[in-house]
């Protein structure tokens, strides 16, 4: 299956897949029970036109996967919106897309810090293999435009209750000027993976349970602060 999939930089002509991509993003988030910032087909098409996205297709033209680049003043870059068609999940294509969008980011913005927010252990593993390290939210861009993108996420209330210091997502960062060799990060992640998995489940359970209690009682949110990396 892998040899039949073409992964390349998207072009304006790929806008025909934009609605399919955004529909699957929303469906996937709903199935996981976690939130993502919503993207419109127009926004995805814009990223394609700007040469800031990667698309995966079969040789016959069926859509397989997608990811795009966000930038903030050239200093910070995010590889966002990674999504794979249900028919091609667990095939290794997500890793290939992440590798290509990471390469594209390094080509376009060689001095920028590349970061991501994720609720999934699989994405954390891929990021670790590329050289990303888990970080606190304070190490991400302070740009209000980035945080405004979280407003459409179902977990935005949690994020703001923690003054943007924590949420269900885990923050990961690649700093081109200061990073651990990917081989070391990969080995460390594999060693600590069971711990990360338990912490992710605990984090989601405690946040969502406390949020439900506060909503039912009408009290002001006072969520338990749980930092994944400490």
UniProtKB/TrEMBL annotation:
Name under which the protein is recorded: GNAT family N-acetyltransferase
InterPro entries: Acyl_CoA_acyltransferase (IPR016181), GNAT_dom (IPR000182)
Domain N-acetyltransferase: 5-165
Organism encoding this protein: Flaviaesturariibacter amylovorans
